Amino acid sequence: MHDRPQAEAPFAALPYYENPTPAPGPLPARSWWATSDAARHSLNGTWDFRLTPTADGTGTAFLGDDPAATADWDQLAVPGHWVLQGHGNPAYTGVAYLFPVDPPRVSDENPTGDHRRVFDLPETWPADGETVLRFDGVDSAARVWLNGEELGTFQGSRLPHEFAVGHLLRRTGNVLAVRVHQWSAGSYLEDQDMWWLPGIFRDVTLLHRPAGAPTDHFVHADYDHTTGEGVLRVECDVPGRVLVPELGLDLATGEQARVPVQPWSAETPRLYPGELVTAGERIALRVGFRTVRIEDGLLKVNGRRILFRGVNRHDFHPDTGRAVDLATMREDLVLMKRHNINAVRTSHYPPHPALLDLCDELGLWVIDEGDLETHGFCWMPGWAGNPVADERWNPALVDRVQRMVERDKNRPSVVIWSLGNECGRGAGLSTMAAWVRDRDPSRPVHYENDADYPDSDIYSRMYAPHAEVEAIGRRVEPPLADPTLDAHRRSLPFLQIEYAHAMGNGPGGLADYQRLFETYERLQGGFVWEWIDHGLTKHTPDGRRYYGYGGDFGEEVHDGNFVCDGLVLPDRTPTPGLLEYKKVIEPVRITGNAAGGTLTIRNGHDFTGLDHLAFTWVHTVDGRELATGDLAVPPLAPGELVELPLPPAPADAPPGEALWTVHARLARDTAWAPAGHEVAWGQFTAAPRPAPAPARGPLATPRRDGAVLTLGPATFDTRTGRLTTLAGLPLAEGPRLDVFRAPTDNDRGMHWEKDAQISVVWEKHGLHRMRHRVDAVELAADALTVRTRVAPLSLDPALHTVYRWTADAEGALRLTVTVEPTGDWSSCPLPRLGVRLGLPAAFGRATWYGGGPDESYPDTREASRLGRYAATVDALQTHYVRPQENGARSDVRWAELTADDGGGLRIEAGERPFWLTARRWTSEQLDAAEHTVDLTPGDTVWVNLDHGQHGIGSQSCGPAPLPQYHLTAGPAEFGFRFLAIDADRHGG
Ligand code: GAL
User: Fold this and answer.
1) In terms of CB atoms within 10 Å, which of 239, 348, 479, 766 comes out highest?
2) Domain containing 909 — which CATH number?
3) Which of 190, 275, 369, 498 is catalytic?
4) How far is the CA of 197 from the centre of ligand 1 (A)?
5) CA pair distance 206, 228, nearest whole angstrom
């Protein structure tokens, strides 16, 4: 417990909601605990509600007992946001304040929700002691009355506020009234990039405080890695005993004990159940022993450098906004653990407190971040008016950081305090940091947005390109002007507090970052931006569900779908980006050298060995499993590697592409996944894919017959030279060059940096309106050759494209495509290079041998492994909230698209495997769609067979794809072999 900052009341003349200075009324900040023997009573539920457009509300008749006062009110679920329950609308801006900037004043337009709830005390509610009324989160300013008496006011949306209410409570018929203003002085401090969502959105609880119960306690549980001992001391404002039976501990509060323990870490979340026993209350403790230090320029826990494999997480649910229930919180964390994520930054405010309890239990490192962002001041010259640089705001700033630290100080998972996000610079931040260091010297302090880092124990960046990260890793970053500050920054460990912007398709380049993190000890990992797409549930008039984003709710000012930039879709379906991240950060690396007969296993954990994993191997030829077995892996300490002999290859293996795949799976059930869950894998080649057999002759001779050209089993259009049928199978469109893709969010770049967008380059080069001119259709004895010029409307560069068709003696049709660019393509990489064809809608099943099972692109293909896969065309799609290019499968050796009766088309790769994409709409339709429901299946399955794809990058808020992932326009040649599959025949 700590004293509240003393208000200097510089803004005393303003109404309470415009006065940032913390008002008297709420109790001092203190810790939050989930379980004790003191009575508690939830006031969550259905409340009476009325919305008015201005802060005055419409009178105070509702404060009293008269039920008539709310006779014409609506009902509202609490916790909840009124804008998501039919009263007003949510609004999304990334940076912009939704009122004129004139701190601390807001506008007259200030939606105000009056909430009222009548309640009885439970019959068992003790008559003695005190009772506290707690609000865990109210956005953004509240005034509270109980039984007609005002309790006080508060701001600080994502922070708890408590009032002593015992003297006002009745056994029955209590009237709790809460007036909530959407805008307040606090809104200036809450300019996080997210929906503006007013309301009582976290729990409201009555807590009985028996006589002799503590107000607060502080668990200090360090781990001495040199002796293996835990050091425990529990501070408490009333005397009591601290019991930890498993450790045989029975201590007085304030007393310190040293005992051998198993330490807590994100990998081994060892918690010792205990109790704090005082005269008035028994409080359940869950003690995790761990020590966080910055030593030798590294962040260490329990004496070891740790590597964050993190995500930025908001509290979010597509139906209820930031009102999130326990099951959803657990779902988030379980999903993270299953995807090898070991850290969460609670961007950009303290989460629901129960989330941190779950992090303690499941094992995740947490950077707990203050409810503070003043980003909108970046648009004022020199950040004029920025509250963190105006000392009149200091009481509000300190109040915020106190409420976080006091609330969450007993969580072992919290290893770093973050002051807030994107507030520029200012002395207020230093005041906050000083308070934190004094109150809790056991955890480092983080703040990113001041390049000098005067207040941060960590050198932290957002979206830094790979080259900059590498320079920092090598400790050769350009110096700061001030040598003292430079020396300080040089002494700090480094984190990418946000990177790899996961908006839409992507992020690309994750593996390249991870290599750096695993190479340079100073680089202690990063936090992908971000965990979840904040799409809000909407329905079409005919009842189809989709997710809305900025601009879908009538906002005057908004930032579109920039709010949908997560690794999971709004309904928490993992995106391919999450699967890629899982592979990139896997804590075990499995590589092989088939020629040398060995495989190597490296333990990338920070603390644990590998005995929680079971290893198996599979030997496949052309994707068919020939042999499988267990792999004994000797104990490996963190960071160690071992080279093991490969099992003998199966003796009677048929010829073909042979692969070893090694899996590391959980050997036993854990709290977050059952035994058998795959943690890591490696795949390597035993025998490479044989070169495709040359065509077996004699080759068929093309023949012209009126409007039809025949070549072996195929017919072509005489004039265009386009394939029309293959062995009776009608094509909606024969293969033709295609270079267009529906720009991804990363292609579209940062909306505030229009020139950097590759999608604009593509548009300027007319890639969305290419024209195909047929220059010649040539018949030779053994081939049909179609010469074309493919070029954008209005411009002169061109891709001279020649299609050479042959038909071999096995009834297959072969196509070789050669592309020769002319004109200036130097500034225009191609989105894709390949052919597109159209098949009848019935061909809705895909089977392939190649990369899978999920989507991948050149810089997002770590998670793609070679195998045989099957999926419907519908299931090949990734339903990004804003439709865009998606669904490619890499390294395809062959693919079949078939109807329910088994008939269809088989496509085999030429020299080089291809990228397969199939969808029920064209890329142009995909591009035109703004929401998933804009896409409706047509009568064609459109198939792209690509020789190359441009990388994805993360330029929606970060770097473009690295040069090695660019698809530069240059001379190219690629080919395919097509076979019709009869309904009764099976390919493969
Ligand atoms: C960062 C910011 C995040 C989010 C992200 C882009 O600058 O901290 O809150 O806006 O960019 O999605």
Assistant:
1) 348
2) 2.70.98.10
3) 498
4) 18
5) 41
Confidence check: pLDDT of 316 > 80:
yes
User: 840 and 739, same structural domain?
Assistant: yes
323-340 residue pLDDT tens: 999 999 999 999 999 999
Closest protein CA for atom 11 of ligand 1: 957
Spatial separation of the C-alpha atoms in residues 182 and 283, rounded to whole Å: 36
CATH number of the domain to which 537 belongs: 3.20.20.80
CA 533 – ligand 1 centroid, Å: 13
Q: Which of 18, 373, 406, 422 is catalytic?
A: 422
Please state, in angstroms and rounded to a whole number, the distance separating the CA atoms of residues 881 and 541. 18
Let me know whether 645 and 724 are in one domain: no
Q: Do 166 and 255 share a structural domain?
A: no
Query: Residue 646 and residue 618: Cα distance in Å, rounded?
Result: 11
Dihedral, 731, 734, 740, 742 alpha carbons, nearest 10: 0
* Residue 675 and residue 738 in one domain: no
- Residue 45: how many CB atoms within 10 A of its CB? 13
Which of 159, 174, 209 is the last residue before a domain boundary? 209
70 burial level (CB within 10 Å; 0-12, 13-18, 19+)? buried
Q: Which of 190, 311, 422, 565 to mutate to test the pocket of ligand 1 (most atoms within 8 A of CB)?
A: 422
CATH number at residue 36: 2.60.120.260
Burial class (CB in 10 A: 0-12, 13-18, 19+), 346: buried
Structure tokens at 802: 């020649």
Collapsing DSSP to helix, strand or coil, 378 comes out as: helix
CA–centroid distance, 373 to ligand 1, in Å, is: 11
Instruction: Say if 589 falls within a structural domain.
Output: no
Q: Whose CA is nearest to atom 4 of ligand 1?
A: 193
> Which amino acids bring their CB within 6 angstroms of ligand 1?
94, 193, 348, 421-422, 462, 498, 501, 529, 562, 565, 957
Report the C-alpha gap between 840 and 897 in whole angstroms.
10
On whether both 350 and 438 belong to a single domain, the answer is yes
Which of 644, 660, 687 terminates a domain? The answer is 687
Reply yes or no on whether the pLDDT at 889 is more than 60. Answer: yes
Q: Nearest Cα to 464, choosing from 520, 526, 376?
A: 526
Model confidence, pTM: 0.97
Q: Is 498 noted as a catalytic residue in this protein?
A: yes
pLDDT reported for residue 2: 44
Residue 31 CA to residue 405 CA, distance in Å, equals 8
| Cβ-Cβ contacts under 8 Å for 854 (sequence gap 6 or more) | 576, 579, 863, 864
Residue 756 is assigned to a structural domain of this protein? yes
The residue whose CB lies within 8 Å of the most ligand 1 atoms, and thus the one to mutate among 191, 195, 497, 957, is 957
Predicted local distance difference test score (pLDDT) of residue 966: 98
Domain extent, residue 803, equals 703-981
588 domain-assigned:
no
Give the atom of ligand 1 at the shortest distance from the alpha carbon of 347. Answer: 9
716 and 810 share one domain: yes
Position 754 scores a pLDDT of 67
Using left for φ > 0, alpha for ψ between -120 and 50, and beta otherwise, residue 514 falls in alpha
The reply to whether 753 belongs to the active site is no
The verdict on 244 and 328 lying in the same domain is no
User: Cα–Cα distance between 200 and 139 in angstroms, integer?
Assistant: 6
962 close to 467: Cβ distance less than 8 angstroms: no
Quick check: is 2 in a domain?
A: no
In this structure, the answer to whether residues 333 and 441 fall within a common structural domain is yes
CA of 303 to the centre of ligand 1 (A): 32
420: pLDDT strictly greater than 50: yes
The span from the CA of 172 to the CA of 174, in Å, is 6
pLDDT at 107: 97
- CA–centroid distance, 462 to ligand 1, in Å, is 8
If one counts the domains in the chain, the total is 5
Report the pLDDT value the prediction gives residue 987, as an integer from 0 to 100: 43
